[in-house]
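Good day; I would like, with your permission, to put a structural problem before you. A protein sequence and the structure tokens that stand for its backbone fold form the material at issue. Thank you for your consideration; the sequence and its tokens are set out here:
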Amino acid sequence: MRILIVEDEEKLAALLKEGFEGVGYAADWLAEGEAAERRILMYHKEYDAITLDWMLPGKDGLQICLDVRSKGITTPIIMLTGRFDAGDKVKALDAGADDYVVKPFSFEELLARVRAVLRRPTQTISPELKVNKVILNQNTRKVLLNGKPVRLTMKEFGLLEYLMRNPNKVIPRDQIVDHLWGFDFSSFSNVIDVHMKNLRKKINNRKNKIIETVRGVGYQIKD
């Protein structure tokens, strides 16, 4: 999963980023409204959800929400704000926000709300993915291979999930890096290769190479 955090309170943003990364998500952070809208317009397909502060420098979150929805972007948006008036909540939801969280809040509550919006029928991500002989449950974070549980690290789980959401497609290495580690991560690092090597050892066997490396391009999982 990859989350875009749009928040101008640096301490809160750092806590959110740390929290999401702690449960295995990739998280990017932007603090200015217009820059955030540009990122959403250009890269919305790279994000599974967006947490969007209402009060931002440059352009406020409510207007950003209205603008991106007017362009047909359906990425789930959770509005974060100190505004607790019922009328403000109605404005946010009418603007296209999927949920509304009032500050202060616990990270566990926000994480639960992120999981909730990702489970909604309008979202293209299914809670359970099945490719070849692998079953991955996004909610329980459990993986079965030939009916037997496979223990994965958080990054291995993220890699497998991303590949399974794109079966039989060769996913470029840089695209995987951007999705799971964020824009600031160096694509020249061999960290992804180490994680992928370990994942393939757990998923592949001599008779059935489910995950393949396409030299010079990236990786794919075969159905």
